[in-house]
């Protein structure tokens, strides 16, 4: 097995107390709140923006058929805008996620350091 | 030899070459199931797009727009926006905490055996419905294109089935990934070319293109009618159309994040950051493709026309017929072989996710309690189950026949994924109190209600006039009990309610104990599976 799955051996394992300790650290709480500040509003915004489309198309078809430019109507333009909405949120998320990665890396480094020291003491 | 046949053979030869190359690099579980987790962000992004843009996208959406105008475009929108759920909620935690399958994440906190068994049933159900739809589509397409070569529907289905078994059994995830990448590039190239040709037909004037869409002429019940195809309401009609549209939206937005063959792709990359990058790459490709369905669908409606398509292979042939009308038979053959490649790649992706779930979840973890008795056993079991999955899909696709109504099978796959898989994935990551009873109840209720509601929906139940015969007749000749074609609006909340009520029925301290471990792992990537070296 070791020749085909070297990565499996390096997997970080820890006791429950260690996971609870990490979960209670300020760094981890910062990571979670940084994530929530972006993800929750972004998720709610996209759900509302998206479901406005079937709701308006379904319940106000005459309004959505209003012609804006030649034959092009509100319904088509709003549908098209969904693509740009999705791309914009994805782009903003990637930018925000740089912070998540930085915070997460600190937590990982500290945890792995502690676990290395722990092993040395045990020897 | 006909041109389409030569093009098919070229594609098959290239993909078999890749499979041979990949087979030499697919030793060991991580290599076979997850391409050693060394696929890069853009590669995986293209492969996700390849896995996702199935026959339903290329042939199906073009056909729905060509026949029902704007309402068909609703599928295009939902299928892209759905990736925000994948990006914001599912992709990174899954990569951080899992190994090979969706059930890995569930099994972290919960009792592994019941949860894996149930999740595997759900995975196999979703994949099988999805796959049969693709096989029937492929068989019909190939039989129609190659009818001069004397290839029948049955031969075509068997051919597609054998090819996908070969890719998966010998090449594993690495070969499947590269088949997806090549197919996605071909599909994008073909779609861009078709779109340019459609615009060229209108002398590159958007004004005259949209003007034509505003006045589409065809025959309905012997009468010539002129309709504005940009106007909503040609497909989703009162009294239930609006609710059906919302229900469809729910299934698309929440179903994608529960599709097993999409989720397993995030295990092929080195880390969560790359998983995120691959979702973004996929969104760029998938979004561009679905915007271009404007040209494919409305182009077919205006240039080829409903009347002609209806008598030359039906809605699903809209895109190939458009190619023929614009640039003749060679281009027709080119677009058709892209459609064929599309189907083949998606079927391979479905097969590998289904067989991985059986080998990893059922065989190793449920039957043998998480112990691989000898090295390579899990991969061997996966290879055998890929063979079985393929054989089952071939048999059912042949039994259903070329004219079977397959659109509802794909719809069913999305509805099951949204109602059964998504609630338990989300609750297990975010809700501390969640437990095994809740997961099993959520999966079972989501699965049963979504299937049950489809069985009593207008897709299956309706009273046909005697003029409708054969496979076009509805299975149950009675008035539909449930008025919507899409069950999501009811079955997704029921899946969540089932999972929540089930949780409150029992106490499971071990699940709450391990919540912090899963929380830290899924949010930081601490201890996540790393890329293998080769």
Salient structural properties:
heterodimer, A: 123 residues, mainly alpha, 2 strands, B: 534 residues, Sodium/glucose cotransporter, two-stranded antiparallel ribbon, 20 helices, 73% helix
Helix fraction of chain B? over 70%
Number of domains of chain B: 1
* CATH superfamily grouping of chain B: Sodium/glucose cotransporter
Shape of chain B: globular
- What low-confidence regions of chain A span 5 or more consecutive residues with pLDDT below 50? 1-10
Strand adjacency order, main sheet of chain A: 1-2
Element-by-element helix/strand order of chain B: HHHHHHHHHEEHHHHHHHHHHH
The CATH architecture assignment of chain B turns out to be: Up-down Bundle
What does this structure look like?
The complex is a heterodimer of chains A (123) and B (534). Chain A is mostly helical and 123 residues long. Chain A has a domain at 42-123. Chain A has five helices and two strands, in the order H-H-H-H-E-E-H. In chain A, a hairpin with a 2-residue loop joins strand 1 (67-69) and strand 2. Chain A is elongated and about 70 Å long. In chain B, 73% of the residues lie in helices and 2% in strands. Chain B is globular. Chain B has one domain (3-403): Sodium/glucose cotransporter (Up-down Bundle), CATH 1.20.1730. Chain B is an all-alpha fold. In chain B, helix 1 packs across helix 8, helix 7 (112-145) packs antiparallel against helix 14 (318-367) and helix 10 crosses helix 18 (488-505). Chains A and B meet through helix 1, helix 2, helix 3, strand 2 and helix 5 of A and helix 2, helix 5, helix 9, helix 10 and helix 12 of B.
């Amino acid at each position: 097995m070791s020749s085909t799955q070297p990565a499996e051996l390096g997997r970080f394992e820890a006791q429950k107390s260690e996971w609870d300790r990490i979960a209670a650290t300020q760094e981890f709480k910062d990571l979670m709140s940084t994530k929530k500040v972006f993800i929750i509003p972004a998720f709610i915004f996209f759900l509302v923006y998206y479901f406005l489309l079937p709701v308006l198309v379904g319940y106000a078809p005459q309004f959505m058929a209003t012609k804006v430019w030649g034959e092009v109507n509100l319904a088509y333009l709003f549908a098209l805008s969904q693509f740009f909405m999705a791309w914009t949120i994805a782009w903003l998320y990637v930018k925000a996620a740089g912070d998540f990665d930085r915070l997460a890396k600190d937590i990982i480094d500290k945890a792995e350091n502690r676990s290395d020291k722990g092993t040395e003491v045990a020897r | 030899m006909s041109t389409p046949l030569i093009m098919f053979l070229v594609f098959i030869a290239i993909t078999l070459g890749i499979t041979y190359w990949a087979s030499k690099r697919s030793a060991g579980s991580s290599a076979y199931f997850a391409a050693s987790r060394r696929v890069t962000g853009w590669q995986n992004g293209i492969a996700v797009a390849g896995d996702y843009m199935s026959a339903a996208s290329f042939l199906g959406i073009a056909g729905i727009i060509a026949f029902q105008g704007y309402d068909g475009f609703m599928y295009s929108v939902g299928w892209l926006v759905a990736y925000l759920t994948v990006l914001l909620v599912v992709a990174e935690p899954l990569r951080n905490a899992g190994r090979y399958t969706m059930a890995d994440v569930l099994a972290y906190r919960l009792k592994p055996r019941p949860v894996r068994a149930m999740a595997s049933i759900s995975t196999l159900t979703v994949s099988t419905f999805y796959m049969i739809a693709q096989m029937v589509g492929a068989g019909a397409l190939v039989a129609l294109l190659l009818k001069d070569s004397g290839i029948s529907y049955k031969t075509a289905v068997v051919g597609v089935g054998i090819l996908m078994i070969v890719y998966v059994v010998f090449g594993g995830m690495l070969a499947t990934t590269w088949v997806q990448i090549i197919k996605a590039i071909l599909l994008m190239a073909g779609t861009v070319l078709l779109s340019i040709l459609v615009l060229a037909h209108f002398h590159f004037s958007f004004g005259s293109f949209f003007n034509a869409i505003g006045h589409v002429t065809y025959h309905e019940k012997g009468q010539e009618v002129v309709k504005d195809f940009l106007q909503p309401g040609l497909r989703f009609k009162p009294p239930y159309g609006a609710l059906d549209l919302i229900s469809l939206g729910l299934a698309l937005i929440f179903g994608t994040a529960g599709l097993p063959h999409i989720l397993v792709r995030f295990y092929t990359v080195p880390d969560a950051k790359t998983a995120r990058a691959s979702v973004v790459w996929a969104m760029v490709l998938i979004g561009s493709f679905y915007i271009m369905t404007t040209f494919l669908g409305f182009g077919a409606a205006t240039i080829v026309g409903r009347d002609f398509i209806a008598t030359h292979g039906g809605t699903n042939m809209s895109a190939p017929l458009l190619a023929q009308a614009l640039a003749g038979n060679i281009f027709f053959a080119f677009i058709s072989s892209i459609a064929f490649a599309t189907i083949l790649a998606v079927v391979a992706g479905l097969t590998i996710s289904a067989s991985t779930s059986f080998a990893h979840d059922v065989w190793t973890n449920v039957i043998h309690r998480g112990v691989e008795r000898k090295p390579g056993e899990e991969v061997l079991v996966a290879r055998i189950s890929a063979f079985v999955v393929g054989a089952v899909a071939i048999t059912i696709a042949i039994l259903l026949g070329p004219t079977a109504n397959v659109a509802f099978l794909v719809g069913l796959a999305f509805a099951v994924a949204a109602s059964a898989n998504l609630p338990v994935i989300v609750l297990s990551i975010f809700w501390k109190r969640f437990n095994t009873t809740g997961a099993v109840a959520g999966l079972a209720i989501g699965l049963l209600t979504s299937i049950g509601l489809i069985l009593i929906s207008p897709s299956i139940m309706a009273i046909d006039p005697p003029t409708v015969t054969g496979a076009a007749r509805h299975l149950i000749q009675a008035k539909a009990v449930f008025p919507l074609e899409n069950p999501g609006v009811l079955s997704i909340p029921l899946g969540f309610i089932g999972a929540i009520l089930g949780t409150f029925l029992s106490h499971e301290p071990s699940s709450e104990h391990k919540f912090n471990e899963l929380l830290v792992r899924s949010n930081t990537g601490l201890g996540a599976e790393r890329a293998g070296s080769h």
